[in-house]
Inverse folding.
């Protein structure tokens, strides 16, 4: 059974529909990129998958033993976080919060999980550093480590590379691809970077006037895919 | 008579001891939540809610209620819940709604006090409610016990929910997505801050409560770099400044509230200087 299945989902605000008729499934180990123009409803879709808001129509079904609070989430950074006085360890550990339930303090397993995830993402030397003193790439790695504390199964990433320079961007993409390939974590990523999407993703969901869902190769041949690639894509587009 | 003798003399009076106990407890509670409120961009909520409490107190005295608290506390809690709730997706954004409620409550309170005067000296009443000039020295044992119990409850709640409050403050949507009941913790923070503000009105009066909430937190953030260190430092600093401010006020016969805030400002200046030196 699929890990996540969207059946004819419509999304919108205050009765106004932004996206309609979204149907797609995500299986364990998939790497799905969600692409589309600004305002097409990508972030709204992500919030709906996370259960932060409910769809106007249709339903999102979790399967394969995935529970709603077992999704790791890497949000876009908010203004509050940029000058937040917290150490890297505190932030990574807060990813274990969902496991605690009503227990007020973290137990040994959760501390070890946080330490392991910091080690995995090369954050151990930074553990005591303050979040606001980190570089853009480092903060994304911290938030990724936190997301990994919340899940072993499914990661949702909301434009993880926005504002990063090309070198750090490439590193972060490699890290995410590793997590997907080596640890078998399903990845769902919102991205504007179509060339990276075509390079790493196994499936593409295009949201817009003409929606598309399918594998990467199918997307290259499809109508919306060709159109989008002409403007944004790697071959002969407006952007190199 | 030197300052020390004067102090020992004053400390023999129970009302001075009560004032010190209540002052320290309120300083402790307000600074704990101050860190969260400053980071959530709600620095002005202390100001707004204290004006609400002022308005409610005016209504209570116009209605000639025997127990002001019975009206002031619920009204303030209600406003705190409304303000913190609408923070996210409101039509009127956080700072605007705080400003609106704050000014509105102040104006209505003053208006009512003038329309239905309960004593001959209205401006004196208003002044003491706003700047808390005398009420801390007229506390009854019952009020002191109430304050002690509510403070213990607040500190206990803060310690128990420390990690959850951190998660909700740092990233509410992440916390929500991973199954933390963010709405409940926001509600808890709102109720706690409202209770503390109503208590603190006795100490520094409604105008200066913001100072108790934000100064220790901001000072601690100049130097410390983890949430836990900032919280602990802010609590210690707040208690020290309040104690120092009250003792100075007793010895030098200055207004209690403004002396405490002056001590907080001095500490902030000191911490900023140290922070700047360390970052160079």
């Amino acid at each position: 059974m699929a890990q996540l299945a969207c059946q004819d989902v419509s999304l919108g605000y205050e009765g106004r529909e932004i996206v309609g008729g979204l149907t797609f499934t995500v299986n364990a180990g998939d790497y799905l990129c969600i692409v589309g123009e600004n305002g097409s409803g990508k972030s709204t879709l992500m919030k709906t998958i996370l259960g932060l808001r409910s769809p106007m129509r249709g339903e999102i079904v979790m399967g394969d033993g995935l529970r709603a609070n077992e999704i790791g989430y890497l949000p876009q950074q908010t203004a509050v976080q940029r000058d937040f006085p917290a150490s890297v360890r505190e932030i990574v550990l807060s990813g274990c919060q969902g496991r605690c339930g009503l227990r007020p303090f973290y137990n040994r397993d959760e501390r070890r999980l946080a330490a392991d995830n910091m080690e995995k993402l090369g954050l151990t030397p930074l553990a005591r550093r303050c979040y606001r003193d980190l570089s853009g790439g480092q903060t994304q790695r911290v938030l990724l480590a936190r997301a990994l504390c919340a899940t072993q199964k499914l990661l949702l990433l909301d434009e993880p590379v926005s504002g990063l320079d090309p070198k750090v961007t490439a590193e972060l993409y490699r890290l995410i691809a590793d997590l997907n390939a080596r640890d078998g974590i399903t990845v769902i990523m919102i991205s504007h970077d179509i060339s990276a999407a075509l390079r790493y993703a196994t499936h593409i969901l295009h949201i817009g006037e003409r929606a598309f869902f399918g594998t990467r190769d199918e997307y290259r041949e499809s109508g919306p895919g060709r159109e989008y690639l002409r403007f944004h894509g790697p071959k002969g587009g407006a952007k190199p | 008579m030197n300052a020390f003798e004067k102090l020992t003399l004053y400390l023999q009076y129970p009302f001075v001891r009560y004032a010190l106990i209540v002052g320290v407890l309120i300083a402790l509670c307000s600074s704990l939540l101050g860190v969260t409120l400053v980071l959530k961009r709600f620095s002005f909520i202390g100001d707004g809610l204290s004006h609400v409490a002022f308005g409610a107190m005016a209504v209570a005295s116009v209605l000639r209620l025997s127990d002001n608290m019975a009206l002031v506390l619920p009204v303030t809690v209600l406003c705190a819940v409304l303000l913190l709730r609408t923070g996210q997706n409101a039509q009127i954004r956080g700072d605007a709604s705080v400003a609106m409620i704050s000014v509105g409550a102040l104006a209505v309170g003053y208006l009512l006090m003038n329309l239905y005067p309960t004593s001959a000296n209205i401006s004196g009443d208003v002044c003491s409610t706003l700047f808390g000039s005398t009420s801390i020295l007229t506390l009854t044992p019952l009020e002191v016990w109430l304050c002690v119990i509510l403070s213990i409850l607040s500190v206990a709640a803060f310690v128990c929910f420390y990690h959850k409050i951190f998660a909700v403050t740092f990233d509410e949507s992440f916390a929500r997505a991973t199954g933390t009941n963010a709405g409940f913790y926001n509600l808890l923070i709102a109720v706690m801050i409202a209770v503390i503000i109503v208590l603190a009105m006795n100490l520094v009066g409604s105008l200066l409560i913001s100072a108790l909430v934000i100064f220790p937190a901001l000072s601690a953030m100049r130097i410390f770099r983890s949430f836990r260190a900032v919280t602990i430092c802010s609590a210690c600093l707040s208690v020290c400044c309040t104690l120092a401010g009250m003792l100075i006020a007793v010895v030098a016969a200055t207004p209690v509230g403004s002396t405490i805030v002056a001590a907080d400002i001095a500490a902030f200046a000191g911490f900023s200087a140290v922070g700047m030196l360390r970052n160079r």
